[in-house]
Amino acid sequence: MTAYKKTLKIDPILNAAWLYYQEGMNQSDVADKMNVSRLTINKYLLQARERGIIKIELNFDDYLNDYSAINIKNKFKLNNVLIVPDVHSSIMPSKEFRQHMANAGAAYLSDIIEDNDFLGVAWGRTIHMLGNYIAPKRLNNVNVIQMLGSILPQPDFTTIESSTKIAQKLSAKCVSLHVPAIVSNPQLATELMSEPVIQHSFSLLEKCNKALIVVGNTQDSNPLISSGVLSKKEMEIFRDLGAVGVLCGRFYDINGQAIKYENVDNRLLGISLEKLQKIETKIFLSAGPSNFDALIGAIKGNFITDLIIDEDTAKLLINYSL
């Protein structure tokens, strides 16, 4: 009778993480030792962070107390400003700088989220990426709440996943609104809002003490158009009315004042700008000169308390005349 020996198998992600972080080997040496490519090791280390095997913690106090960050914070009366080092939206491909901003946003959110928080979350490409970068964290009694109704799945994000990914990483309960972002007529919007289940979901938005938002401009490249929430003609109307930015489907001008267009506003199902203003901590990600007017309007409208920006945007803010 032949006796078979059992072989020892160790998860290669665990192996790579141990050799790189614990043994101090560089990626090339780890690749040689494991007999795989350096690119494979890079992927293993990224997966180790996503799974929470590796937790890298920065001392955000040092970044928030940087001279330029303090300058911008005081100038615009914000709570905190984080300038993401070596990220230049003016010269980087959009997907690349979006990844860097999402990574920074994930680290900052993980640093400030606490037990019992109610976190309102917008949806979009950057928020969707951000959910991938958050390191798993054990929290108690945290709720993550979608702040605008849903749309059909897009090539690079889905509305449900944008909030559920974040909730899963934070051991939180995810509350989806279970309504479209926009409906065909105001009467239908009113009827949906009268449903008890939907009323309950929207009532939780009133409890939000933190919000996660990404800047939105009024260009035709805005996902609100590609997702079918708005037509190009409707976006043009908002621009003609003076809109420079949009948050959760709600438009505002350069002074942060709401821009109303009843044919759209009365059909939208999501948080209002007035309710958004009342949220205590509003984490806002912004990068790129094309989003600068939207950023200024959001600052003036009190839609931001904690700002995360790239170096190019930081320079624009430092030189902006109030």
TrEMBL record:
Record flagged with keyword rRNA-binding: no
A molecular function GO annotation: DNA binding
Gene3D superfamilies, A to Z: 3.40.50.1360, Winged helix-like DNA-binding domain superfamily/Winged helix DNA-binding domain
UniProt cross-references to SUPFAM superfamilies, sorted A to Z: NagB/RpiA/CoA transferase-like (SSF100950)
Annotated InterPro entries: NagB/RpiA_transferase-like, SorC_transcr_regulators, Sugar-bd_dom_put, WH-like_DNA-bd_sf
Transmembrane domains' residue ranges: none
Source organism superkingdom: Bacteria
Every Sugar-binding domain range: 72-319
Pfam families: Sugar-bind
Keywords of the record: DNA-binding, Transcription, Transcription regulation
Family: Belongs to the SorC transcriptional regulatory family.
PANTHER family xref list: TRANSCRIPTIONAL REGULATOR LSRR (PTHR34294:SF1), TRANSCRIPTIONAL REGULATOR-RELATED (PTHR34294)
Protein name: DNA-binding transcriptional regulator LsrR (DeoR family)
Native organism: Testudinibacter aquarius
